[in-house]
Design a protein that fits this description.
Layout lengths: L11 E7 L3 H6 L8 E4 L2 E5 L6 E7 L7 E2 L2 E6 L27 H11 L6
Length: about 120
Amino acid sequence: MKVPYRQTEIPTLVRIDVADPPERWGDLGFTVTDSSLNLGGVRVAFGVAGHGITSWEIDGIPEGTRAIDGLATTPVRSHPQQTGGTHPNGAVGIDQVVITTPDFDRTAIALDRSSPCSQR
């Protein structure tokens, strides 16, 4: 019996673009430089147009992915490892990313399909 190939690379968040003013994050105790910060190796960029998280870059997802359930997505390969950054509030990383959706099941399926670890 032939066993289907299953990639085991775990997708890694590289960047998030957030439609918030950078000053708000500075007021919360983050070190913001040039309208962005580094948090646990993830670059968080502020001041983009829109509402909430507007786009993200993920290493380890299929080439050609342009959106995951409507969220603009850029697949990247081999990104430079960024330092975690030092923040007065003591934050050292991102525990989770929260995205609102009107249809949880649809979004969960879209996220699963974008992962090279999912079985299709």
